Amino acid sequence: KHGINAEYGGADGEPGVDGAKGDTGPRGETGEPGEDGAKGEKGERGEPGSKGLAGIQGEKGEPGVDGGKGDRGPDGDCAPDSYTPCNCDTHVLVRHSQSTDEPECPTGFESLWSGYSLVFFEGNGYGLSQDLGSAGSCLEEFQVMPFMQCSSSDVCRHGVRTDKSFWLAIESDPDYTIKPMTSIDEIQNHISRCNVCMGTQYILARHSFTKDSPECPEDFEPLWEGYSYVMVTSSGTSGGGQDLASSGSCLENFYLHLY
Predict the structure, then answer these.
(1) pTM to 2 decimals?
(2) What integer pLDDT is reported at residue 19 of this predicted model?
(3) How far apart are alpha carbons 152 and 160 in whole angstroms?
(4) Which segments of 68-183 does DSSP mark as H helices, in order?
(5) DSSP character for 81?
(6) 207, CA 20 to 30 Å: which among 37, 63, 195, 248?
(7) What is the pLDDT of residue 117?
(8) What contacts 172, CB < 8 A, 6 or more positions away?
(9) CA-CA distances (angstroms) from residue 114 to 117, 137, 139, 209, 246?
(10) Distance from first CA to last CA of the chain, Å, rounded?
(11) CA distances from 101 to 15, 95, 198, 246 (A)
(12) pLDDT tens, 150-172?
């Protein structure tokens, strides 16, 4: 600006040169917060977080309300023809190979033990036959005389009477020119092998009274086919019968000289 000095009456001079930059002044007080900015754009989806810890098991709930009474079921069929044997029990059968080979158990059965096929005992003229379908007809060891006589005097004797044992044979055509055998090992080569088997299936034998094999009853399946064996006899009146309902009454091979 140009002006006149009132005291001296002279005119104002030209503005001086700008002075040097002064020192930085003290920091001012913080101003008031500004207004909120505009909303930013949506960010990208983050990575899935780690699986959290399992929560504490909740308390047991209250028992539910009892359901309504169901409808009456249909009447059952009590006819005998609809009976199915129960598979809730175990049954034992014995299979005889009539050879020196150990026979296999039928499907669904497992082996308990194997041995030699015993048919009949005779002691002092009295006989005791074995059901070939029972476990007693399959002895694990072969002995020419597997029993002894004991008296009330606490004395036991072995093989001193006319005691005999009968075993299933293996040969269909025996050689009568062979002399009596005395070696246990040699005798065993002529004795049938057997296998005691256990399963849940009920066992029975059916006989056709013809040359044809009979069919199994309803709800039964065949295990094997064979020939009807009835009884064993010895000298005199000694002998014994075979239960025809037992599997032991159905031998898979027919030999004229059975034992």
Answers:
(1) 0.59
(2) 80
(3) 17
(4) none
(5) G
(6) 195
(7) 93
(8) 253, 255, 256
(9) 9, 11, 8, 31, 19
(10) 155
(11) 138, 12, 19, 22
(12) 878 888 877 666 778 888 888 76
Cβ neighbours for 84, distance < 8 A, ≥ 6 positions apart: 219
CA max distance for the chain: 183
pLDDT of residue 120: 85
The DSSP letter of residue 44 is: P
Phi, psi of 174 (to 5 degrees): -70, 150
Phi-psi region of 103 (alpha: psi -120 to 50; beta: other; left: phi over 0): beta
Strand partners, 113: 196
pLDDT below 50 — which residues of the chain?
none
Q: Residue type for 9, please?
A: G
Cβ atoms within 10 A of the Cβ of 228, count?
Answer: 15
What confidence score (pLDDT) does residue 80 get?
A: 53
pLDDT at 159: 66
Q: Which residue has the tokens 């005992």?
A: 121
Task: Give the 3-state DSSP-derived string for 155-194, with helices as H, strands as E and coil as C.
Answer: CEECCCCCCEEEECECCCCCCCCCCCCCCHHHHHCCECEE
Q: What is the pLDDT of residue 11?
A: 74
pLDDT at residue 212 in the model = 92
